[in-house]
Amino acid sequence: MNSQEKALARKLFRLKIHESKGQAFEDLFTSIMNYAEADFQAITPWGNIGDRKNDGYIKSKGIFFQVYAPKEIFKSYPKVIEKLNNDFSGLMEHWSPVNEYYFVINDTYHGVNPECEKAIQVIKKDYGLKDAGFKTAKDLENLLFSLDDDQILTIIGFPDPSIIQLDYSVLSEIIKHLMGLSLPRKPDSNIIYPDWDKKIIFNDLGSLEAKYLNDGSNQIGSLDEYLINQSNFFADEVKNKIREVYLDNSDQYSGSKLFWQMVDLISTRTEACYQAATIVLMAKYFDTCDIFEEPI
Q: What's the pTM value of the predicted model, to 2 decimals?
């Protein structure tokens, strides 16, 4: 798959994630694991004995999975912890050896509550497991994109080629997310680049552009929090697209003109809210030296 096809495949997979609850999510997980792990065995509930608290396992490695897709992830963490503990206790009664244990949850790309993470680490320690943790939507997406193209299409469905018009879709998605954030009451990120101001001067950016970048840097932490719950493909593609815009225009433009050329191309719309979200993205990759030149 090329970049555009992967972006479309990702959108189709995200749609499946958001629509999959209960058995549908377990079926999605199973379809990925059947391709990803040759020794994976799904366990189907059978009569009145159920599945013995095991939704699937890799027998040769002693790795067990329990799958859960709550209707409302933000309000369900007490129930998640309760189910986690009960299911693991039931698992230990019927299966052995258990070397690793993973609770696969449909977090719809929001991440896992810290109390849930603490609970599964207690299980890991108390039972001397080699590893234990949560597998979330981003982990399934990463696993999906490790498969062959035909396997990916079998899982997500075959898209209509006529709708593959997604050159900057990952940027549109993340800009939309940034537009939905509230303004921070205090900076949520510390600039790690040691010569931020020197870099602004070195690249001949004006005081207005410097102000916009400084304002955008206040939301880098929120941007990073969003990216950490997305797949590796998405995070890499965002960075690559931003750098691509920079490289494509840095020969023809420089300084403030290059800054605004990038804003216009990335935001695609001239409303202030789109441009402000775009500048947050630019501030992040300005900070990491993926765009604009590092001072000599």
A: 0.74
Contacts 24+ apart (CB under 8 A), 165-171: 165/4, 166/4, 166/7, 166/8, 166/11, 167/4, 168/241, 168/266, 168/268, 169/7, 169/8, 169/11, 170/7, 170/234, 170/237, 170/238, 170/241, 171/238, 171/241, 171/242, 171/266, 171/281
- The angle formed by the CA atoms of residues 239, 240 and 241, to the nearest 5 degrees, is 95
Which structure tokens are listed for 239?
A: 């960075």
Reduced to 3 states (helix: H, G, I; strand: E, B; else coil), residue 229 is: coil
206-257: pLDDT as tens digits: 999 999 999 888 888 889 888 998 999 888 989 999 999 999 999 999 999 9
DSSP at 46 = B
The pLDDT of residue 70 is 82
Closest CA to 139 of 38, 55, 43, 36: 36
pLDDT band with cut points at 50, 70 and 90 for residue 48: very low
Query: For the chain, which domains are there?
Result: 3-161 (3.40.91), 169-287 (no CATH)
| Spatial separation of the C-alpha atoms in residues 189 and 61, rounded to whole Å | 41
What residues pair up with 100 in beta bridges, in sequence order? 63, 131
